[in-house]
Amino acid sequence: MRRNEVQNEPVSIEPATQADATLLANLLELYIHDLSAAFQIEPGPDGRFGYPKLPLYWSEPEKRFPFRICRAGRAIGFALVTRGSPASDDPDVWDIAEFFILRSYRRGGLGRRAAELLFEHFPGRWMVRVSLGNRGALPFWQAVVGAYSSGRFTVREREGTPHAWRDFSFSTRDHGA
Questions:
Q1: I want to staple 177 with a disulfide (CB 3.0 to 4.6 A). Which of 105, 108, 119, 171 is the partner?
Q2: Nearest CA to 168 among 142, 143, 150?
Q3: Is CATH 3.40.630.30 the classification given to domain 3-171?
Q4: Regarding predicted confidence, which is higher, 6 or 38?
């Protein structure tokens, strides 16, 4: 499939249920593998990276929101959204904790559209945090947040280990953007 054909395919965000836990855990392995070079993450003795916070997305439903990102009914990624952010004192700010699109679906606009759908699903103030070590994510989020907010966002850099972070803050279109 050519890239422009992928752009024309609709993408959706579907709330993930407990029945999707294995699917998300498997996609998280691919996501963490992608990040392992920048963060020097090592797999455990079982060969898996794991994501200990995943069960919290079903035990804390008022604070954590898991989504499957789908195209033509198939999961092509995921998003984990939280109410509140480790980079903000605002308990009501929306935060993208994790966001992943399978490599074969990247660079066709599907990730951008999925992010926009998340912003529309949760109107209000948003924080998108990106590690400076995650070089592929930086231009993606800069472009997505810039386009979505029509350039009305703030950027803050803060220290972190092993890399500093860049935080993008903005409000959704129907929330004073």
A1: 171
A2: 142
A3: yes
A4: 38
